[in-house]
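Question (not urgent): is this output format expected?
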Amino acid sequence: MITHTLTHETLETLCRQSPVATIVIDPDKRIRLINPAAEKALELPSLTAVGRSLSDYEILRPIAEHLDTTPNGPGIQTTGLKLSASAEVTVQIIVALDISAANLSQVELVENLVHDLKRPAAVAKTLADMVQETGPLNQDQLVWLDRTRRKLLTMSSAINEVIDTFWMEVSGQLLWQQTDLVPIVQRLVREANDLAQMNGITLETELPENGCPALVDATRIQGAINNLINNAVKYSPNGGVVRVSLKHEGDSITFQVSDQGIGVLPEELERIFEPGYRVRNKETERIEGTGIGLTIVRTVVDKHGGKVFVHSTLGQGSVFGFTLPCKP
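Got this back:
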């Protein structure tokens, strides 16, 4: 199961990579995990701390006392911990029944950790972009810079897929709100333009001039749209055109992305929505990905009462999209 793999391995990895001091405990306030940021800030090596109670350490007793006066079921809390009269550190406390079990509290946990990881990834991407502006670079330097930027974009995509997958398998609940889809599509197209330019792809849009209001879960729909745009860019050849369109017609809203990419065989069209399935041939060997993106798209759209669609011709390109019912 994807949930088991992500919870046991990816979730722990996210904790360890988070720049925020993070301690995972069980309901008995015994330390299950302490990340490097917490080890450094609190001077507590995880090798000896894991398995011991918070109250065993004088520096952690205020946290134990705080938890005594608050509900300490599965969930996440953030508190300030004084190191000295003039120094304080923010500590993230995760109370988990079982770090290898999927439950709703872990969605909140991963959302916080993903947010912590997005910031350094975004900063690294900005710094990489600035390198080229500092002065002329030779060809080898440009090649390495291009590879760095691609890896950072891949990392950002993977981070988004972690939280989307947790939501998909653990919660699946929607937070409905009236949302204009046009600004969301415009922003995602701008963000995808970095990868498009590196691949020699031209992005074109066809959007309603007066907006496209819809009752949706904006975060989840944004993830679905982002997956479709990025897939079209990744699977298009240099010099190709990717067209993104959004239409409000009658009782439905239609979003679609068309590309001039490698296309998909008819017998693979349905399988590409299966978790982990990827079209594998010589043309796709260079393309990185987890194979979960289209599964996320279909799940999000299904939960909104919509339908996904795909049309593809091998060697000529594909059209991926979805329709959503208009709701008052």
